Amino acid sequence: MSRIRKLSEGTINRIAAGEVVERPASAVKELTENAIDAGARHIDITISAGGKNLIQISDDGCGMDAEELTLAVQRHATSKLKLDGAGREDLLNIASLGFRGEALPSIGAVARLAITSRPSADQTACRIEVEGGRVGAAEPAAGPIGTRVEVRDLFFATPARLKFLKSDRAETQAVSDVVKRLAMAHPEIGFTLVSEGRHLLRLPAEAPGKEGWLARLAGIMGEEFRLNALPIEAVREGVRLEGFAGLPTFNRGTAQHQYLFVNGRPVRDKLLVGAVRGAYADFLARQRHPVVALFVDIDTAEVDVNVHPAKTEVRFRDAGLVRGLIVGALRLALTEAGHRASTTVAETALSSLRPEPLGSELRGQEAGFNAPGAAPWQGHPLSSTPPASYAYAARPGTEAQAGFAGLGQSAQVEPALAQEQRQVPGSADYPLGVARGQLHATYVISQTADGIVIVDQHAAHERLVYERMKKAMAARGIPRQLLLIPEVVDLDGNGAERLCARAGELAELGFVLEPFGEGAVVVREVPGILGKLDVQALVRDLADDLTELDEALSLKERLEDVCGTIACHGSVRAGRRLSGEEMNALLREMEETPHSGQCNHGRPTYVELKLSDIERLFGRR
Q1: C-beta separation of 24 from 193 below 8 A
Q2: What contacts 587, CB < 8 A, 6 or more positions away?
């Protein structure tokens, strides 16, 4: 073996760059965080070739003079760590985004870096360049107050790293995602992102407060999020949670649209995944995911942001407290939402009702339709005779009347219902209105004070039955089934210890187990409603859940699946005709039942169409 020797400074910097700057998006993140920490009110970001050829970030922050510029490109030099009582750097109270002092020298070690900066007290700016680890001298330059950082030819000094980068499009998307997350966390700062001369993001600074926060989130996640977002606010033991969560009916196929911010820092944390999944477990199918943006404000001494060199992960001193706060706040917001469903459902319905534009073969002769003095149908390109619709209008009481009579066959309004409607209070008295008919023996039509509501009778009743079952199980407990031969399950790692520590919680769910030697548990009772069960597989899934998500989701989801199936089979089926009394009873129970706006799988149970929207369809507005 060769003797131990100290690595050269260049090698040390390139190794650090490999940890801190994994791809262009990592460099953008570090440099943008520096701009935020500098007190910038607006940040402009320009990239080329996904950031491989050029990254330029300009801000209007506090700037640096020549001496600070020289220090900034040296390793482990930072202005962002406070000193404790003993005069040492305090790593337990991190209030800034960047604090390691590695970003600029690491980027300079693998790229061509140039920094131009000017503090407000100076008349001129200074510029310094670093190329492949070689640092130049700070020189006078022209520039406004603030800092402009240019990174060219990223990884030219480590060409092997270039081979592992993705396409320009993929790298651009990664940069955009990083900037979006930082912009969400700091709505008071304006952001622009330009790639190859095209604006990908243009976000003005928002006013402080919830409205500004929601406006910034809508600017990034779409206006639909604003219309379907529930405000979240909760405080527990000094930890504050704020943000917005989408309605269950406003969901996505992946968890990419779930964002967590801790003290203004965007983080990716399995804690959020488990907490959100647990809170929405009653409302979404397993393969669907809600849209949330949650902001945690916590004492800096209670969270460790120094876990990962890229600072994308954090570790809470009391993770259970934070997780419980998130789950409780989300469930409360969902409960208070009542039967509200996603507005996008109604918009989709209205879009499908809008008349189609004239075909290309008709457009050339549109002018003939309204020629002065001509009959309404004259000039029609397909016929010289009046259309059938005009014939119906011209001869009331003839064959046209028979043709119109068939329109009512799918919409059943029975005489008994008409009599009941006269006895029911006005539609203004009820949020979901008064039943006026039934379509295709599947959809209940009701009239509200300012529109109509279309209810899927099966989906709505399924949710009602499911909520009744949950209430009954909470009151009487989940019935257990004693195993004739207890099942012994061997587990890896500390899975058995985790399960036994949560034995009380599992027993409430009807699953009774106890330790059985080292690394094993014995299961004595299981929930009776699960029927035939693979106990071995379920126990291993529970152990994995407790390790990854700190919750026994596998068992809860299986119980919910069974209850959902029972509710589905026990509810009013599509195709069954309902009397007016039954329809109104369904509407009244929906109004009183929490979460009745969606079925157990996250699908809407009703669509509400406002009268103003319907009038626009017919040109009345």
Answers
A1: no
A2: 430, 432, 433, 434, 435, 444, 446, 453, 455
Residue pLDDT, tens place only, 123-169 = 899 999 999 888 999 999 999 999 999 999 998 888 877 888 899 99
Calpha distance 173→180 (Å, rounded): 10
Rounded CA separation 154/150 (Å): 10
Structure confidence by residue, pLDDT tens digits, 386-421: 444 333 333 344 433 343 334 344 445 555 445 544
Q: How far is CA 222 from CA 185, 256, 344, 591, in A?
A: 16, 14, 12, 29
- Contact 465/595 with Cβ under 8 angstroms? no
**pLDDT per residue as tens digits for the range 161-189:** 788 889 999 999 999 999 999 999 999 99
Pick the closest to residue 463 from 333, 586, 323, 599 (CA basis).
599
**Residue partners of 351: CB distance under 8 A and separation at least 6:** none
User: Residue 371 and residue 595: Cα distance in Å, rounded?
Assistant: 55
Would you tell me how many other CB atoms lie within 10 Å of the CB of residue 309? Answer: 17
- Calpha distance 588→580 (Å, rounded): 12
CB 21 within 8 A of CB 107: yes
Residues near 393 by Cβ (< 8 Å), separated by ≥ 6?
Answer: 400
The two tokens of residue 113 are 């870096």
